[in-house]
Amino acid sequence: MRRWWIVLPFALAAACHTDTTGPGTIAPPTDLTYEVEPSGTPGEPSGLLLRWTFTDDPNLAVWHVYSRATSSGQYQLRGSTTSNSFHDRGQPHLQYYVTAEDVGGVESAPSAAVTVDERLALPAPATLTTITLDRAIALAWSDNAFNGAPAAFKAYYVYSTTYDLDTDKCGTNWTREGTTVSPEFIVSSLTNGLPRCFGVSAVSVEGFESIWGPVRSDTPRPDAYNVVVYARQASATGSAFRFWQDANADGTVQDAELGIVTSGAATDADFAVDRDAGNNLFLTPIRAAALVARYGTGTTSDLTAIDIAPVGGYAHTAIQAQPGVAYIFRMAEADGFLRYGAVRVTHVGQDFLILDWSYQTDAGNPDLSRAAH
User: Fold this and answer.
1) Rounded mean pLDDT of 294-320?
2) Taking Cα atoms as reference points, which of 251, 277, 273 lies closest to residue 333?
3) pTM of the model
């Protein structure tokens, strides 16, 4: 840990204390360091922890901690302790020093003083990206705070709050989700379909917290991998798919109502798989409220690489299924809202295909994976 202190000249009368201050039988404390406690608001620590070298001198009775709020103010007794550390709650003062008192009541000369210097705060993470997961959001950010000063770096703090999609505003009650030394973090145990905002700060070894980097919003959604759907021409069973079927018609999304592989004769399926004379497989929208569009022009590396659902380009026509290609479905549900689902085809055979899927349960929310806003 780096130590920052400023040694200042002290007059014997500088400390306001009733005991006699002098060399006594105890040496002044050494190696005084501090660490502020971040509060989540940059520039407003919730406290400060002082530490100094322990001594087992039998003549030692107690240590006294002094502080002042300004560089020209007079030092006042902040507290006394028999431990070689001291916790000062609330907004820290500017400067601190410590003295030792012997069993005879004689106080030592002051230690070197430490100055609580907010200029030691690190820069904020320059970027932040999110990847939507099932009941979780994966965060990744630039590691510039560590790369710029490895010896000064302590950790990153990750925060989240609610997000209102309609007003495009984050909530005001932020919660710290965790601490990490890596430039990535997974916020887990989230509720699918509930949007959240995320922010990250960098903390120095002295405890100073940077301002937050860019704030991003994202919404966890359910997904599944390696789902087999047959061609209707090969099997009537298991040849159609429904992202969400509200069995109770109550508007709530239950796990058992998601990702349903059903009969190819089902008229309420979102799509079925069809095979043409050339043994090519197609995704065919079934119910009138389900439209499909290809995602991008090439292949998609993974389901989590699917970005925001496109605004346009949807049609109620069959589209050929190709390995590695992703497709976005836009569906009007019974509650009157549009919802989006994604399919990435991983295998195309003669009788069946294998796909990964995701579905955004939040009405009207196009977030399917990596948030770009």
Assistant:
1) 94
2) 251
3) 0.75
Q: How far apart are CA 121 and CA 343, in angstroms?
A: 45
- Per the CB < 8 A criterion, the answer to whether 317 and 332 are in contact is no
- Percent of the chain having pLDDT more than 90? 78
Q: How far apart are the first and last CA of the chain?
A: 37
pLDDT of amino acid 2: 45
Question: Virtual CA dihedral for 11, 16, 17, 20, nearest 10 degrees?
Answer: 20
Q: Are 99 and 110 in contact (CB under 8 A)?
A: yes
Question: Residues 197-240: pLDDT tens digits?
Answer: 999 999 999 999 999 999 999 999 999 999 999 999 999 899 99
Query: What is the number of other CB atoms lying within 10 angstroms of the CB of residue 303?
Result: 22
Provide the greatest CA pair distance for the chain: 103
254: which 2 tokens?
A: 């239950």
Q: CB–CB of 312/332 below 8 Å?
A: no
Side chain identity at residue 337, one-letter code: F
Q: Comparing 20 with 280, which gets the higher pLDDT?
A: 280
- CA neighbours closer than 13 Å in the CB half-sphere of residue 23: 0
Tokens of 110: 């002051």
The pLDDT score that the predictor gives to residue 24 is 57
pLDDT number for residue 40 = 80
Residue 1 burial (C-beta neighbours within 10 Å; 0-12, 13-18, 19+) = exposed
Which stretches of 41-94 are assigned E, i.e. beta strand? 47-51, 60-68, 76-81, 85-89
The answer on pLDDT for 18 being more than 60 is no
d(CA 31, CA 112): 8
How many CB atoms are located within 10 Å of the residue 255 CB? 8
Whose CA is closest to 55, among 86, 79, 31?
31
- Structural tokens at position 57: 């001198």
For residue 149, CA distances in Å to 69, 73, 114, 115, 141 come to 29, 33, 21, 20, 16
Q: How far apart are CA 350 and CA 291, in angstroms?
A: 24
Q: Which residues pair with 290 in a beta bridge?
A: 331
Mean pLDDT over the full length of the chain: 90
